Amino acid sequence: MEYIKLGTIIGSFSLDGTLKVMSTTDFAKERYQEGNTIYLLNKKKEYLPLTVVSFRMNGKLDFVKVNEINTKEEAESYKGCDLLIDKEEANVPKGYYRFSDLEGCEVILEDENVIGKVKKVEEYPAQATLRVKMNNGKELLIPFVKAFIVKVDISKKVIVVRLIEGMI
């Protein structure tokens, strides 16, 4: 099974074992719906299935109550552990992409010249940015915004880009 990280447990929120989570997902409301199964990657590198009971958010913090954790002490024992979801269960809306799906995609200019492959997707406060390993061995950063991204085809592992003068 392949997993997607939802966030990292940073402590407990209440005596009932509600988890305080530093969120890394843009779709917290969908991921933490009551009854959903999420996974806790514990310190022994075991994936423990958890059933969501309730959820609320405040900024980048998610407060998640699960059926299997019922005390503040138990929740605190998982501090630093990640919450995940099965990638197959984690549908994304049209126009959104998982960073892991973008990595390895071929990057092509509008004139169909291949310039390289996405090495990594980096998150910055302003936007996500593609780190492209170019065919000439150099690296190029391309902001993942409509001004530069013309088309993304995950099934073909291709991203068509429009660059401005001086970028390469």
SSE-based structural type = mainly beta
Determine the CATH superfamily of the largest domain. Answer: RimM
Please summarize the sheet with the most strands: 6 strands, antiparallel, barrel
CATH class of the largest domain: Mainly Beta
State the helix count: 3
Using the coordinates shown, work out and report the CATH topology of the largest domain. Answer: Elongation Factor Tu (Ef-tu), domain 3
Shape: elongated
> H/E element string?
EEHEEEHEHEEEEEE
Structure commentary:
It contains 3 helices and 12 strands. It has 168 residues and is mainly beta. It has 2 domains: 87 residues, RimM (Elongation Factor Tu (Ef-tu), domain 3, Beta Barrel), CATH 2.40.30.60; 63 residues, Roll (SH3 type barrels). Strands 1-2-5-4-3-6 form a 6-stranded antiparallel barrel. A 6-stranded mixed beta sheet has the order 10-9-8-7-12-11. The relative contact order is 0.16. The mean pLDDT is 91.
Topology:
Elements: E1 3-12, E2 19-23, H1 28-31, E3 37-41, E4 47-58, E5 61-66, H2 72-76, E6 82-86, H3 99-102, E7 106-109, E8 114-123, E9 128-134, E10 139-143, E11 149-153, E12 158-161
What's this, in brief?
The protein is mainly β and 168 residues long. Helix content is 8%, strand content 46%. It has three helices and twelve strands.
Attribute tags:
168 residues; mainly beta; Elongation Factor Tu (Ef-tu), domain 3; SH3 type barrels; 2 domains; six-stranded antiparallel barrel; six-stranded mixed sheet; 3 helices; 12 strands; 8% helix; elongated
